[in-house]
Fold these 2 entries.
Entry 1:
Amino acid sequence: MKIRNGFVSNSSSSSFIIRLKDIGKVCPTCKHKTPNILDIIEQSHYNSDDNSVDAVGYKDVLDYIRNWGYDENPSATSNRLTEKLLPYKDDNIAIVSISYHDEALNNMINSGVVEIIGSV
């Protein structure tokens, strides 16, 4: 697996490993509820082929990446990933793909609603 830090020219979407923060938490002052970005991504009508939730949960995220098949040395990748994701083992993490052209979702991903752990 190759971790990348920018856009790929022949791709129309970007995949992120994210940690979901305070989903559904209600502010006691203004009663604003933190949005569930996974629901928003799944319901996005921008271009459903480019926006997707690919894996949810620590084990599923690791399995998804291990089975992706982009690395010549999957054992080493697996070890690096396990080490990188271990601090998030008890958190709600996911792999999501977002269309470059969906400005609303890109803004939400970068707004702090989620923590971006990495790009895949």
Entry 2:
Amino acid sequence: MATRWGQPKLGKARMEARLAFGHARRHFPIMLNWSQCSAVERIPGKVSGVWLFKGTRVPVQALFENLESGATVENFLEWFPGVAREQVEAVREHAQRSLVET
């Protein structure tokens, strides 16, 4: 199914990714407070201090960039085996909740 301009309609996950990091970031910065999400951590000196999935070296941003590029959650979990499905769901829920609150 396509929009009236011929672009494919986005699924919910892709729309969330675009809102959280993708297109929205290019037009106006959206800063989410990840400190309230138990599935992530930020350790100074580890992967330049970016927010990571807890217990991994996988940046949270990698999830949203992959979803925006058309990957599925299944793809992401396959490509990053250290990340648990529960972590991905917690991150997506936190991002959606944070965007609704802002």
